[in-house]
User: Which sequence fits this backbone?
C-alpha cells in the first residue's frame, strides 16, 4: 500500500493524489478499479511552515506520528506531499520507509540535460537549502529568487492555500519566473506542491518540473515494480 502524508496544503494533496491516478492510467493502462494500487492518504494539519520561523521540533513530531499511523495501517512505504517537509525525511526514515521529493526531483532534472534551474518554493524550503545541496552534489545549480521575487512567490502560495486560483497569483509567480530567467535559469522547479495548481510549463515557456507529479509517479512506479518496500 502507498501511504501519502498530506494536508500541506490540503488542495495540493488532492492534486498529488490525482497525479497518481493519471500515472496509473497513462503509464500502466489502468482501466478498472482493480488496476489501481491501494493508496492511504492521511491529511495532517501541521503548524504553518510557509514562512521561516516554524517550530521544527513540533512539526517533526506531527510528521513522525503521521508516518507511523500510515505504517501501522499497512502502508509499505510513504511520502510527504510537501516540499518544505523534505528536510525531515532522513529522520523520518528511522520510523518507516519513505520516498523523497527532493531525491526524485534531482533524478528528473538530471534526465533533461539542463544544468541551471530556477526554484519557486516557500521561504522555509529556500532557507533550509536542501534543494541547493542535493542539486550541487550532482553538478546542477539552483538559482534562488531575489527578495522581491520571493515575497511574490510567498504571497502567491498564500493565495493558493486560501483557494485563490485567480490571475494575480499566477502573475506574481510568472514575474518571479521572468527574473529567474534573466538571472540564468534554463528551467524551473515548482518546489512547492501548491504551485502546479496555478502554473505549468505552458505558462513559464521553459522546461518546468512539477514536483507533485514527480513524487506521484515515483510512488506509483515503486509500487507497480516492487509492491510494498517492506515485503
Assistant:
Amino acid at each position: 500500500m502507498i501511504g501519502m502524508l498530506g494536508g500541506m496544503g490540503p488542495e495540493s494533496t488532492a492534486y498529488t493524489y490525482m497525479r497518481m491516478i493519471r500515472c496509473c492510467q497513462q503509464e500502466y493502462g489502468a482501466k478498472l478499479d482493480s488496476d489501481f494500487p491501494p493508496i492511504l492518504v492521511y491529511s495532517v494539519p501541521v503548524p504553518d511552515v510557509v514562512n521561516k520561523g516554524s517550530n521544527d521540533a513540533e512539526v517533526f513530531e506531527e510528521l513522525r506520528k503521521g508516518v507511523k499511523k500510515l505504517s501501522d495501517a499497512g502502508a509499505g512505504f510513504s511520502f510527504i506531499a510537501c516540499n518544505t517537509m523534505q528536510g525531515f525525511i532522513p529522520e523520518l526514515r528511522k520510523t518507516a520507509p519513505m520516498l523523497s521529493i527532493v531525491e526524485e526531483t534531482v533524478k528528473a532534472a538530471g534526465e533533461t540535460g539542463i544544468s541551471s534551474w530556477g526554484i519557486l518554493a516557500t521561504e522555509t524550503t529556500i532557507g533550509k537549502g536542501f534543494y541547493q545541496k542535493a542539486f550541487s552534489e550532482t553538478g546542477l545549480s539552483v538559482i534562488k529568487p531575489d527578495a522581491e521575487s520571493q515575497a511574490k512567490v510567498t504571497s502567491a502560495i498564500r493565495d493558493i492555500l486560501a483557494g485563490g486560483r485567480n490571475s494575480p497569483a499566477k502573475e506574481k509567480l510568472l514575474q518571479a519566473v521572468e527574473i529567474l530567467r534573466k538571472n540564468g535559469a534554463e528551467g524551473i522547479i515548482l518546489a512547492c506542491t501548491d504551485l502546479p495548481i496555478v502554473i505549468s510549463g505552458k505558462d513559464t515557456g521553459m522546461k518546468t518540473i512539477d514536483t507533485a507529479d514527480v513524487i506521484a509517479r515515483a510512488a506509483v512506479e515503486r509500487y507497480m515494480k516492487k509492491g510494498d518496500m517492506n515485503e
Observations:
- The chain has ten helices and seven strands.
- The first helix runs from residue 10 to 28.
- The chain has a mean pLDDT of 94.
- Residues 44 and 136 are 32 Å apart (CA to CA).
